[in-house]
Known about the structure:
This protein is of the alpha/beta class. The chain has a single domain, classed as Alpha-Beta Barrel (TIM Barrel), CATH 3.20.20. The protein is 24% helix and 25% strand. It has a nine-stranded mixed beta sheet with strand order 3-1-2-4-5-6-7-8-9. The model has no long low-confidence stretch (mean pLDDT 96). The protein binds iron/sulfur cluster. Iron/sulfur cluster (SF4) binds at residues 31, 33-35, 38, 40, 71-73, 99. Iron/sulfur cluster binds at residues 31, 33-35, 38, 40, 71-73, 99.
Amino acid sequence: MIFSVNEVFYSIQGESRFAGYPCVMVRFSGCNLSCSYCDTAYARDEAEEWDFNRLMESIDQFQCPLVELTGGEPLLQTNIQFLTEQLILKGYRVLIETNGSCDINTISPKVIFIMDVKCPGSGHTNVFCEKNLSYIKTDDELKFVLSGRSDYDWAKNFISHYGLWGKVNILFSPVWNKLNIRDLATWMLSDRLYSARLQLQLHKLIWGPDKRGV
Ligand code: SF4
């Protein structure tokens, strides 16, 4: 059983409500999108083929209870379902960060999803797999990466249109060096978005924006 792996490392989780916790990050190679702001473009094509045992050993070595599967797009891995089930059986808390374009129906409901909804600034507004909204759970997270005010307004409309306020965790994350954090904070306060969380990329603040493997 082969996986296309870009890197496995142990660091501080930088995003989602798990930000700040130590976490093993498994970054798979390959992505079906090419977002304008992608900060892991190297993961789209830098790949090594690892078998299941090598991958599990590389995760187990850190003895850390929290594991995130990311990419690239991790749901493109043929055997991702098996891997998540094995990790859960071993007692890991498993997060999957997905770009929102792939059907999550076959993945264990014990997995916590951090799912992108791609805004216009990404260049991929129309890829969202709408039926995922019927599978998503209250402890999953929907993430909107915002390039500017028009993305912010688009995100609010999307959430209202699908009646998602208060039903799932909502993350608003500014594109690094593009949308001013204070502007986003001001808009959220002004609009009284009590059900959305402003998310910073903590790993970039700790290690710097260009450092890989952290
Ligand atoms: S989905 Fe993620 S990994 Fe893929 S291009 Fe967009 S930002 Fe990069």
